[in-house]
């Protein structure tokens, strides 16, 4: 490798799978520095954009299984999943993970009120510090919502928690916003959310986190760079939403914001301009109600759907309007499916964040030659 030009090394290694790169880190200190270089990590992440691994969570929140998205089309009977785990961060009841960002997943533990960032590709975990010290002791926490994304302006991963706090002294309720920075490994208060606390977990698109709000016909977004709130309109067809109607579902697919409501799927075009919506297709015509849109196939001719009522996965042929059920051997007990991009993004860095040690074999004495 030392005889190859650095640019050529970048080109070759950046196209390899995560597992190969983790093994190559053990070759020498020079190789490890090369693979751990932030510029290389970003290039590799960009090259892995169309790749995907499916994360499965079982119905008691204790097991996590991973399989390649491509493998879903390899065998008629599906693929046997490979079990993995986040050691020391198990939950006793189902815990809905926050949508992934650049290969990282934020998983709350509702029992112990703990948040942890997890990279399923490297098996690295980082437990976030408690955020309770950032609020006054005279305040009591109520309902809350959480989201996770990447701030490209500061090259930082941020967690946003919107919480209703009841001030026991003044007897007032406030919708407070807290931001966690992975670089500083700390929480801080930011501008209060001007709307009610969202009921769903936020979706990261275009440098911002997005939620739908109960009883408000709009999308509320939080810009991670400016740390300010703004609003986006919902599709005009949703103006007939009633008080007890099913709330729209937000998803991110192919770097676009999508809304699913009553089986109809809309895509937000011209983000930041006219904010116009395009109706892509309707699932209700096939007897399917609201579903989560998980990922595109490599050809983008199909979309992987998860039906939250039956807890089943389907490939949906967009052009031919055809559903094909996905059978995953050994996954009968699993209740939630999520896509996660393979990446070597680190959760430990020189800025003081100490993630758990990578769970891979590394040489004690590395070859210097």
From TrEMBL:
InterPro entries: F-box-assoc_dom_typ1, F-box-assoc_interact_dom, F-box-like_dom_sf, F-box_dom, Gal_Oxase/kelch_b-propeller, SCF_F-box_component. Residues 1-43 form the F-box domain. It comes from the Eukaryota. Pfam families: F-box, FBA_1. SMART domains: FBOX (SM00256). Coiled coil: none annotated. PANTHER family: BNACNNG10540D PROTEIN, F-BOX PROTEIN CPR30-LIKE. This is F-box domain-containing protein.
């Amino acid at each position: 490798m030392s005889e190859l030009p650095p640019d050529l090394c970048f080109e070759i290694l950046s196209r390899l799978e995560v597992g190969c790169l983790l093994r190559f880190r053990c070759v020498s200190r020079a190789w490890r520095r090369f693979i751990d270089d932030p510029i290389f990590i970003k290039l590799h992440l960009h090259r892995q954009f169309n790749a995907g691994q499916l994360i499965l969570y079982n119905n008691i929140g204790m097991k996590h299984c991973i399989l390649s998205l491509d493998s879903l089309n390899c065998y008629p009977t599906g693929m046997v999943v490979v079990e993995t785990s986040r050691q020391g961060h198990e939950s006793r009841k189902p815990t809905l993970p926050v949508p992934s960002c650049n290969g990282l997943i934020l998983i709350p533990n509702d029992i112990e009120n703990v948040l942890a960032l997890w990279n399923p590709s490297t098996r690295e975990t980082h437990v976030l510090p408690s955020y309770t010290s950032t609020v006054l002791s005279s305040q009591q926490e109520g309902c809350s919502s959480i989201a996770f994304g990447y701030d490209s302006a500061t090259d930082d991963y941020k967690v946003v928690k919107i919480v209703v706090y009841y001030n026991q002294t003044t007897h007032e309720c406030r919708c407070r916003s807290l931001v966690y920075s992975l670089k500083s490994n700390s929480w801080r208060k930011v501008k209060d959310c001007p709307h009610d606390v969202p009921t769903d977990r936020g979706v990261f698109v275009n440098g911002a986190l997005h939620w739908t709000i109960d009883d408000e016909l709009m999308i509320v977004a939080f810009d991670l760079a400016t740390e300010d709130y703004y609003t986006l309109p919902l599709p005009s067809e949703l103006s007939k939403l009633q008080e007890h109607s099913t709330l729209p579902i937000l998803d991110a697919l192919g770097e676009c914001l999508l809304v699913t409501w009553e089986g109809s799927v809309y895509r937000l075009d011209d983000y930041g301009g006219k904010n116009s919506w395009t109706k892509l297709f309707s699932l209700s015509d096939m007897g399917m109600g609201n579903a989560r849109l998980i990922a595109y196939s490599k050809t983008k001719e199909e979309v992987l759907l998860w039906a939250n009522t039956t807890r089943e996965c389907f490939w949906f042929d967009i052009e031919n309007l055809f559903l094909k059920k996905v059978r995953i051997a050994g996954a009968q007990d699993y209740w939630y499916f999520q896509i996660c991009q393979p990446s070597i993004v680190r959760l430990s860095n020189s800025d003081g964040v100490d993630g758990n040690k990578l769970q891979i074999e590394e040489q004690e004495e590395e070859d210097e030659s």
